[in-house]
Design goal:
This protein has 595 residues and is of the alpha+beta class. The protein contains 19 helices and 28 strands.
């Protein structure tokens, strides 16, 4: 970094002084409020040196604090200077209350409205007002003003995603969703989620690692017309023919002027996911805001026949790649050759790289051995990758972006001998995985209602896990797609035909081992039941990769669970055999044998 963190904080403070601010808030987010932040928008990293994926910084006149969640309590101390920052918990120390405790009445707290949701702004403004503290929007972010060696955004051209792969034309999608915008009482909707407007226009991009999207913001009118504000230098020549009538492209610099034209219009936007600046700017121009969900999210989540065909095809090729890695790993362990977590992650990717449709990972691979696997979002790049030990458990959670779909799979592998206790825990996790896979449920059921299916066997023994059981997955889009999910407390959206989710129960014993078994599954109508009284759904597995039978203790399985395990492995064998040969095929035959 070109100058020290202390100098950067001083530069932020001198900018704060010009603006008469007593505090300034720097969240991890950028204006797109997505899960991934491109390098040129890593403001929190620039101001602190912290590389984690979540957090918040508050800079005061004389001091600063960094708020991180439980995943990062060790990492933040390694990366961030304790003489410059106080370390605080993102969830246990509410930032508004912390500001009230540290500032006097009539203080001014600055924020960049592009980097926060409208819901955050409304709540924080109300909280601070009780202590007579003002929340003040800045026109120019003090970080941006001082970031002299800021990386340039990527310049890769927009990719035209074929209508054949998408299964629907952009015009058809825009017209249908525009009608929904009108049904919600609005004239125009702000489509701020990157994967939403990419899906609407049948385009993809290379602007963010792991997520094949284009940076920008879109306005969708009720008649289906759409304006995309993006870097217009990235537009391929034939984009107008590709997206069909009614689409125009403008620079992001034109957004403010375009929002100013919305006077008297009813504007649909999500207070929870769309940035505050877009909504406050439209409101200031005389638009009426209508709070609602992203109208693209549900239709995008329900994959059509073409999208599902792509998902199924890429999962077979991905199954071959991951299985070849697992076969290689078993041979290396048998020869007593053990590697570190980074080498293993690179080796796994090398098998995917031989696929011409492979683009990039769908998230940072979690390659975790022994006690590291007990941290469920572990990243071997955040420190020194650990060396695999004999007689341990290895957990690898990885995924890929292919031109025809997105994958995400976790396998837990025995390295040498494992204990009876470890086999018991893996088997309890497997039972939960099978319960989700085999679930049948009436239309209208949400993932929140199914979540306990995955936990029930762990609960019976006094155990649980601290993450959701499943998340939605996009079609050559985001590996974490809403609004569907399988989790307690937040996944209350009914599951619908064509939705793709992960099924990933786990168990983590601190500093000892971690277990997770993850397949992707798709919702489909339940045809097998006779004389049903209501519309029923079930899941279809998309992932076909062996699970490690060496970690299974049959005494904890029912006969039907043993049958599921054997039938699943028979399917894996049938689907992968045509693409495997030699010692890899010998391995496949061995590991898919009935237990």
């Amino acid at each position: 970094m070109s100058n020290t963190i202390a100098e950067r904080l001083n530069a932020i403070r001198s900018e704060m002084a010009k603006l008469n601010l007593d505090a300034f808030i720097i969240p991890r987010a950028d204006e797109y409020l997505g899960e991934y932040v491109p390098e040129h928008n890593e403001r929190m990293l620039w101001a602190s040196g912290f590389t984690g994926s979540a957090g918040n910084i508050i800079v005061l006149k004389q001091s600063a604090a960094i708020f991180v969640d439980g995943r990062y309590t060790v990492q933040v101390r390694q990366q961030v200077d304790g003489s410059l920052f106080e370390y605080l918990s993102l969830y246990d120390t509410p930032q508004a209350q912390w500001l009230i405790d540290n500032l006097a009445a009539n203080a001014n707290v600055g924020f960049d409205a592009r980097l926060h949701t409208l819901a955050w702004f409304t709540q924080t403004q109300a909280d601070l007002a009780k202590a007579q503290i003002n929340l003040t929007q800045v026109a120019h972010n003090p970080v941006d003003v001082n970031w002299s060696d800021r990386p340039a955004p990527t310049s890769d051209p927009i990719m035209l995603f074929s209508e054949q792969s998408a299964g629907r034309s952009s015009l058809d999608k825009r017209t249908a969703i525009g009608a929904d915008v009108r049904a919600q009482g609005a004239d125009v909707a702000i489509i701020s989620a990157l994967d939403s407007f990419c899906w609407l226009l049948n385009i993809r991009g290379k602007d963010i690692p792991c997520l094949p999207v284009v940076l920008g913001t879109a306005l969708l009118h009720a008649n289906g017309d759409m304006v995309l504000f993006t870097d217009t230098n990235k537009l391929p020549e034939n984009i107008n023919d590709h997206v069909g009538t009614g689409v125009s492209f403008k620079s992001e610099a034109d957004l403010a002027a375009e929002l100013a034209k919305l006077e008297g219009q009813k504007v649909l936007a999500s207070p929870e996911s769309c940035n505050a600046w877009l909504q406050l700017t439209a409101k200031a121009a005389g638009a009426q805001l209508i709070a609602g969900n992203d109208p693209v999210a549900l239709p995008k989540a329900q994959k059509n026949a073409a999208e599902l065909a792509g998902m199924k095809a890429c999962h077979i090729r991905d199954g071959v790649a991951v299985s070849r890695f697992l076969a290689w790993l078993d041979r290396e362990v048998a020869a007593n050759r053990l590697y570190d977590e980074a080498v293993l992650a690179e080796k796994l990717e090398s098998f995917r790289l031989s696929d011409p449709m492979y683009q990039e990972p769908s998230f940072d691979t979690i390659s975790a051995t022994g006690g590291n696997a007990a941290m469920c979002h572990y990243n071997h790049n955040n420190g020194t990758p650990a060396q695999m030990q004999m007689n341990s458990i290895y957990l690898v959670d990885s995924g890929a972006q292919y031109l025809d779909g997105t994958t995400d799979v976790t396998r837990t592998i025995a390295i040498g001998d494992v204990t009876a206790e470890q086999r018991k825990m893996v088997t309890l996790v497997l039972k939960g995985h099978i319960a989700i896979d085999q679930a049948k449920f009436p239309k209208g059921t949400s993932g929140m209602q199914l979540d306990a299916f995955a936990r029930q066997y762990l609960w019976q023994h006094g155990y649980d896990f601290d993450h959701g059981t499943g998340h939605g997955v996009g079609h050559y889009l985001s590996v974490h797609e809403g609004p569907q999910g399988i989790a307690k407390g937040r996944s209350n959206v009914p599951l619908l035909d064509g939705m793709v989710l992960s099924n990933e129960p786990g168990y983590y014993r601190a500093e000892e081992f971690g277990i997770r078994l993850e397949n992707l599954i798709a919702v489909r109508p339940c045809e097998a039941l006779a004389n049903i009284e209501r519309e029923m759904f079930e899941f279809e597995a998309l992932t076909f990769i062996p699970m490690d039978a060496r970690l299974i203790d049959k005494q904890y399985l029912t006969e039907s669970e043993v049958n599921w395990f054997n039938q699943y492995h028979q399917q894996v064998k049938d689907k992968l055999t045509p693409f495997m040969q030699g010692e890899d095929l010998d391995w496949l035959n061995k590991v898919t044998a009935a237990i």
